[in-house]
Amino acid sequence: MLRTKIVCTIGPATSSPEVVEGLVRGGLDMARINMSHGSHEHHREAVERIRAAARKAGRPVPILVDLSGPKIRVGALAQPIELVEGERVVFAPEGQAAEGEIPTGYAGLAGDVGPGQQVLLDDGHLEIRCVETDGVRATFEVVRGGLLKSRKGINLPEVDVSVPSLTEKDLEDLEFALDIGAEYISLSFVRRASDMADLRSRVQGRALLVAKIEKAQALREIRGILAESDAVMVARGDLGVELPFERVPLAQKRIIQMANYYGRPVITATQMLESMIDSPRPTRAEASDVANAILDGTDAVMLSGETAVGSYPLQAVEALRRIAGEIEGSGVLEYGPRYVTAIDDDDPRAGASAREHAVAAATVDAARQLRAPALITITRSGFSARLVSSYRPSAPIFAVCTDPITFTQMAAVWGVRPLLATEEEVSYEALTEFGRRAVIDSGVGRVGQAIVVTAGYPFHTSGSTNTMRVEQL
């Protein structure tokens, strides 16, 4: 069983029950529903297929609903416009654009951008630079030209845009996500910690929150964003537009390292196996890319178009499993994440209290010294299991959950094997014995071997990891 988790985007290519069942059998650990495409009706049907396949396979598969966020786009064009290097073009709000002007769906563009600032169009293929603005219309000089088509994206890497983090569409999609019982909800184009705090106030603990890091501003605000999130995603699509391409690899490593440091699960996404949309095999460069994300310390790797619209979704999942299996089997992950000292002397450990980090670190260290075959984490909210996971123990984590939602959520966390307790008595002794039986029944451990058990006491209090004990199977 892999410790690295696999996330698959569900779309037209994975719309049949047979393919969804194949994904779950093949190693899918989390299903992503992309709210940028499709209707609520179609998404609801997809979720029902995923839940059915998970029940049939006898294991939990959490749902990640990915909110679109404030994506800024070019408006509707009567026909594509050829932008010529050196010429000037005017952008105006859609509905107010005069003949010869380019409409934009974001009315605040001219108010946010200033002279000299760079604007990128169509995933960075086209580049313009602001010359002047009157607050309603903005004039740009074309730096890198090409054919501009309707509804192409607009990126403003040098601009702190004033658009709300949750659009009207996002609010409708959020209501849908909560209605279907999504275990995870991600927000696109996060810029600051307050974006996630706003989302948290609306969700009120009904799902775990994932911050998608895809803006240069988010990188500058990464600590605050991590503090307000339950998990993060390295969304390399727009991040690769916001940043010069040569900076993306180091940005990825920094985000993953910071997420590990804060005890936040991290998903690495976008173009992991892009060629497999049309090919049954990945390129060697893609295999190296996936392997390096795992070596960097990612919890999960995600497929987007490969499983949403690709011709080989099952083969793409199999390719991820083979790459992850090779890296995990090599032994290079046995000594934990790459950080070795505090990232900031003023913030020696973050994401949890010093006591909770001390217990998690001691748990993993004890398991290594004892060569324990497994760790047992008794958890109500999943916090203890996520924190222990961030220290990357060399043995699997059997997370004994007393809540069905937590049980499903834990399936997406690195190295965790979630267990839903069936004990009527909720006590340390009863839940530990339940975990012991599961470790033995799984074949991971043998009677008499030492294991390490972590829990928070009292059990009904979330985020109270304060107990570590060495027990015997």
From TrEMBL:
One of its GO terms (molecular function) is pyruvate kinase activity. It is an enzyme of class 2 (transferase). It catalyses: pyruvate + ATP = phosphoenolpyruvate + ADP + H(+). Residues 357-470 form the Pyruvate kinase C-terminal domain. Its EC number is 2.7.1.40. Gene3D superfamilies: Phosphoenolpyruvate-binding domains, PK beta-barrel domain-like, Pyruvate kinase, C-terminal domain. InterPro entries: Pyr_Knase (IPR001697), Pyrv/PenolPyrv_kinase-like_dom (IPR015813), Pyrv_kinase-like_dom_sf (IPR040442), Pyrv_Knase-like_insert_dom_sf (IPR011037), Pyrv_Knase_AS (IPR018209), Pyrv_Knase_brl (IPR015793), Pyrv_Knase_C (IPR015795), Pyrv_Knase_C_sf (IPR036918). Keywords: ATP-binding, Glycolysis, Kinase, Magnesium, Metal-binding, Nucleotide-binding, Pyruvate, Transferase. Belongs to the pyruvate kinase family. This is Pyruvate kinase. It comes from Gaopeijia maritima.
